[in-house]
Amino acid sequence: MSYSINAWLSRYDQLVSTLQQSLVPLLLLLCRCWVAWVFFNAGLTKIATWDSTLYLFEYEYQVPFLPWRFAAYLATAAELCLPVFLTLGLFTRPVAILLFAFNIIAVVSYPALWEQGFYDHQLWGLMLLISTIWGAGVVSLDKWLRNQLAD
Q1: Which of 9, 28, 91, 103 is exposed most, by the fewest CB atoms within 10 A?
Q2: Residues 6+ apart with CB under 8 A from 138
Q3: What burial class does residue 91 get, using C-beta atoms within 10 Å of its C-beta: 0-12 exposed, 13-18 middle, 19+ buried?
Q4: Could you write out the DSSP letters of every residue in 44-60?
Q5: What is the number of alpha carbons within 13 Å of residue 92 lying toward its C-beta?
């Protein structure tokens, strides 16, 4: 009886290991692309309605420590540039940390988010933490560059 349980557990562990080898890279890619898409679209919205963006940063958002105009430019640049790096899996951990901090600042700076978008920001934060902890995975420029430098 003990032998059959051990054999079953061994096969189960092998199956899980095989699934992890193929699914974890896809999960990491999905997390990176999902969050990148969200932030990049927010950046596109900011530049499409630039006057509204400036108004919001001057009167609605309370970004700590930064002048509102500088914060508007910085936020827009971050939302347009960092997601590209995240999608490609290039400098994934530093970019994910920057976007994680950006996400926190967005929630703190705009209290109206707490009612409608807070759960979305929590999900994006979790995805960014996953990218920070596990990196980009094998489907990334980080991995490709590491392999090139190792040769």
Answers
A1: 9
A2: 25
A3: middle
A4: HHHHHTHHHHHHIIIII
A5: 29
Q: Are 100 and 132 in contact (CB under 8 A)?
A: yes
pLDDT in tens, 95-132: 999 999 999 998 888 877 777 778 999 999 999 999 99
Are the C-beta atoms of 98 and 82 separated by less than 8 Å?
Answer: yes
Q: Is-contact 137 24, C-beta < 8 A?
A: yes
With beta carbons less than 8 A apart as the criterion, state whether 90 and 140 touch. yes
Give the CA angle between residues 55, 101, 114 to the nearest 5°. 60
Whether 78 and 120 have beta carbons less than 8 Å apart is answered as no
Name the token pair of 14: 């092998």
What are 126's two structure tokens?
């979790």
With the CA atoms of 77, 80, 83 and 85 taken in that order, what torsion angle do they form, in degrees rounded to the nearest 10? Answer: -70
Whether the Cβ atoms of residue 130 and residue 123 lie closer than 8 Å to each other: no
